[in-house]
């Protein structure tokens, strides 16, 4: 018997509509029009993603 395990990774892309200055080193410093590639939605409501403009990964 063969068992296959598949894992799918789904990435979302968000465009920033408001400026958000990072409050900690863990957060992204966002400007209007920035594109963020989202890799995870956390249970606490924050998202983890990579800012296209800088390549930095962080929370927003």
UniProtKB/TrEMBL annotation:
Residues 1-19 form the signal peptide. Gene3D superfamilies: SH3 Domains. Coiled coil: none annotated. The keyword Signal applies. SMART domains: SH3. Keywords: SH3 domain, Signal. InterPro entries: SH3-like_dom_sf (IPR036028), SH3_domain (IPR001452). SUPFAM superfamilies: SH3-domain (SSF50044). Residues 9-60 form the SH3 domain. This is SH3 domain-containing protein.
């Amino acid at each position: 018997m063969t068992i296959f395990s598949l894992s799918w990774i789904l990435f979302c892309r968000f465009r920033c509509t408001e400026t958000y200055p990072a409050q900690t080193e863990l957060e992204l410093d966002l400007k209007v029009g920035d594109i963020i590639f989202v890799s995870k939605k956390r249970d606490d409501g924050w998202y983890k993603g990579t800012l296209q403009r800088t390549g930095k990964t962080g929370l927003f």
